[in-house]
Every structure is written in C-alpha cells, then in structure tokens.
Amino acid sequence: MALSSLEMEALQLSLQVALLAIGVSLPIGIAMAWVLVRKTFPGRILLDSIVHLPLIVPPVVVGYLLLVIMGRRGLIGAWLWETFQISIAFSWQGAAAAAGVMAFPLLVRSIRQELEAVDRKLEQAACTLGARPFVVFVTVTLPLIVPGILTGTILAFARCLGEFGATITFVSNIPGETRTLPLALYTAVQSPGGEGAALRLMMISLALALGALITSEYLTRRTRK
Amino acid sequence: MSTSPTLHVAVKHQVGSFKLQAEFLAAPGLTAFFGRSGSGKTTLVNLIAGLATPGAGRIEVGDDVLFDSDKRINVSPERRRVGYVFQEDRLFPHMTVRGNLTYGQRFRNKATRRYYLEDVTDLLDIDTLLDRRPAGLSGGERQRVAIGRALLSSPDILLMDEPLASLDSARKSQILPFIERLRDDVGIPIVYVSHAIDEVVRLADTMVIMDNGSTVAVGPVEDIMSRLDLRPLTGRYEAGAVFPVTVAGHDKTYGLTELAFPGGRLWVPALDQDLGYKMRMRIRARDVSLSLGKPVDSSFLNIVEGNVVEIRPEAGPQTDILLDVGTPLIARVTQKSVAAMRLQPGTKVFALIKAAAIDRHAMGFGGTRQRQKY
Predict the structure, then answer these.
(1) Which of A155, B48, B98, B131 is 20 to 30 A (C-alpha) from B143?
(2) ipTM reported for the complex, 2 dp
C-alpha cells in the first residue's frame, strides 16, 4: 500500500497543522481551564459555553466565523493585513487556527477535570512553605494535572487531524497548502478513479485516530499509578 | 539564639455566624491551644499562618508584625515564615520524601536557614526514607516527614494542628518523643493544637484554653490545670493537677519508682529514668480520695497531708476539691462525702493517691525546668 507523493504531502501537512494548533492552544487551554475552575466572575458561565461551542456548532459555522473575523477583510484580519501584511486566511497556519479552535473544548475539558480534582490543601501547604502563587502553580498544581494535560493533548491532536468543515470553509482546499488528510480524502472521493487513494487515506486516518486513543488510555493508566 | 521569639495575638474574626475572639501572649516554648472541636483552634492557627485574614486585630512573632488591621499590614502567607504541620500530612504525592523535605528550603536564602536536611532527618529519624514516595509510607512516617518539611522552611514559629489526630495510639506514642525533642531543641515557639489533655500536659509550657471561639484562659500548664473553674473545659474525666517531679529512687523488688514532688514523695509503677531526672506529672482528680485521719493498714501507697483550699459547688453528685499539699492537688469526691466529712476551706485532710493510676501517659518527660535553651 504505497502512498503517492500527494498523499504523503497531505499526511505531512496534517501533522504540521495539528502540531502548530496544539502548540499554540495548549498554554491557552491550561490558562482557560484554570480560570474556569478557580475564578468566579460574572460571565463565567457564558465564557464556559463559548469555549464549548465548537463541540456542538456545525464546523462550517466556525469556519465562516473565522473567515469573518480573521479573513483579509475580517474584523481583526483586515487590521493585521494592513499593519503587518500578515494573513492566515488560505494558508496552512489558517488551517491550524481552524483545527485549534475546533479541538480547544476537548483540551480544556480534560485539563479542567483534572484541575478540579487537585487537593487545594496541598497548594496551601506549599504556600506556607514560602512559595509564591505562581511557583505553587508550577511546582504543585501543574505536575498534579499532567495526566489531564496528556489526555487532552492527544485527544485534541486527533481532533485536529480530523478537522474538515471549518478548515475547508476558512482556508479552502489548496493542494500542498491547506489540503490536509480529510480534505485530500474528500477530493479523492470526488474525483473519478480516486477510489484507491480514498481507501488509503481512510486507512491512515483510522490508524492515526485509533493510535491516539490507545496512547491516551495507556498514558492515563501509567501516570495514575 | 539567645532568646526565642514570642507570639502575640489579639484578633477578632467572624466566619458566618461563628465569632472568634482571641488574645494571648505565648511565652517561648510550646503553647497548646486546647479546647473542644469547633472551639476555633484551627481557625486561630489559620489566622496566624495567614491562610485566613482576621476582621481586626494584631498578630506578632517576635518583632515581626504579621498582621495589623490599624496599620493595614497583612503579610502574605508565603512571606510569614510560619511552619505549618497540618492535621493531615499534606505531603506532595508527586515528589520523593527528599523533594518534600527540601521544598521550602529553596525559598529561603542560605543566610537565614536555621536547619539542615541532615539535622532534621536525624532528629525525626527519617534518613532512610529519603528516596521513597509519600504513598509508600506509614501514617507515622508521613507525619514525621511533614514535620521535617515545615522545619526545613526555617520558620520563625511552628504551628502544629493536631498532628497526631489521624494516628492510632501506638503511632502517637511513637511520635510524641519527637515532638518533645523539637520543643527542647529547635528554639522557636511552637503552637500545638490538641483536644487530648494527656498530650497537652506532656508537651506544653503554656496553655491557651479556647471555648466557643474565645480564649478563656492563658497561663502555665500547672496553673491552668489547678483551676477548678476551668474543670468543665479541661475535662472532668481526664483532668487533674499538674506539677513537677524528680526521680528520687527505684524499688526493684516491687517494680516501683519513688518521685519527689513539692508535697513530699510518691510511689509510682517503675519508670525507666535515672535518679534526679525531672519531669512533669498529672494526677487525675478521680484518682485522689480524701480522709480526715491518716489511714493505717490501707492499700494506698501514697498519702499526703494538706488543706482544703476551695470546694466548687456543682449540680451533679460529685464535686472537685482543690487542695494545697505543698502544691495544688485536685480531688474528685461525692457531695455526700463532702457533707459527711464536713469539708470546707481550711479543713486538714489526707489525700490518698492510687499508685497504679499513675501511668506513663500522665508524665511529661523532659519537663519545663530542665529544658536546655539555645
């Protein structure tokens, strides 16, 4: 089952997109989980709902929303383009943004669950031993939520690899730039004589997702010991 | 260190409908907060540690003001240099014992460190546990590591909130000697929260009695324990007078030890201590009987002569009587006996103390007076 260069390209691009998406959203996800668990403020429930929105909203909606905000004529996108000549629309970075937004709820949920289980008394103890709040977070809280971070990261990574709707809406289907695995699969299905390629791409996608789930389960069990 | 700093607290605090009002000056050495559960002991300790902020008042350790509502001073807990040993050990599960012990060290610059890992592991006998994880330790070991961790943060004061509460009595008696060593060796004030009078008598120099959120009495253990008005709080069943004793002789034939105390001599079951060893002893009021004449042919080994000082009227069938036998002594007798013997302040009596009732739990080894300070 040899992969054609186009298929290899799609696989490589997918991994690249997913890595960037996770790299950027992980610190934000940890901060968001912390805010949602530890802070009470007006609008917390609203923020919580917004974070979870990509889970239930049609991906096309998220993609179009990104286009409206980040597109070259979008609310923020226009300013970025005029000031720095930067735009993520129709680029692989844009694909990463779409994937990151779609995977964000999964990331936050796993970290949040773990954070809720952290015994605050341990943090108090660290505090009486002389640690400033940030140091307490880094030396006590963070190590204790590592299992949640690992699970969240792997699930989110798999979700990024599978992102389709938001991606195609926001950054289109450009070979070599934004045509990730699912988009390549979609293109193959649409093309006459593309059955062989479609089958291979489907197998790769399934293998990646299954691998991610098994790794996540394995890591969870190991770190819990 | 020439002098050990003192702890001065005068605070008012309210949590929901619970009001706390505390005022006391703890002399150097070990100060016990004693009272029923719910009397506000832990809340008060949390206020000292900075984990809760009092509504108003002042908290000082030595010359350091930790909290002053008038001057708007409220030092954050991580800057208070307070060592806190919690009821539960609260060890960090993701670190080894060594990691736990040295956690607080890194936040103190080397010049202000008071204790070193070796000294502390020696003192607490935990040097063989260093590379293990807390999950693999016994309850007693964990609590000793927790004490070590607090000490190694080089605190100016050590707070211990019922550190033995979660341990069974065998483990307790294993750890008590370590706490005695701490009290005698570390040279910082220790606040020890407890509702077990035997621990308090054994360990404390000063006693702060708390009831319903207020500090109702503060003073040396001997004074507090001989106050009849505090008996409802110090505990009817277990409480009794406390005084210093010295080992004066051993009787190997009968397995007894003779103790000298300000009122004479006492025989108790054999103690494994050298002649001249000084300690503190509590004699429970219920183990003391009274007689007007000196009993002859009785089984009582310990008979001391003295005067009735105070009889506290009580509702129940029994009453407490404060005696002066050269030192305060409390007897618990029936109201009927008080009437039959026509006891009143000034009456000359003989106090009969059952030797067998005095056990190791009543002893405070390494008592106040032979303490070496540095």
Answers:
(1) B48
(2) 0.81
